[in-house]
Specification:
alpha/beta; 3 helices; Rossmann fold; three-stranded parallel β-sheet
Length: about 90
Amino acid sequence: MSTSKNFESKIVLITGSGGGIGARIAVEFARYGAQVVINDRNADNLSEVAKQCAAVSPKGLKPLEVLADVSKDVDCKRLIDSTISFV
């Protein structure tokens, strides 16, 4: 089975990407050329992951950072709306 690791022209939204597995996933998608949308409840963590994503992005793409708590409906709507507007 062949897997392609080219995500150029793709937009990937990763929730909980301020640390741990979510952060690693965001960085890896950025490394493979995706435009990433990262989300967390902690602005400082989100900013650090954004720097890491931009550093590994083949085209230097900066991620969209959306501070939101996905356990709250209003934040989920804002996260989705922000992602759609970003496209």
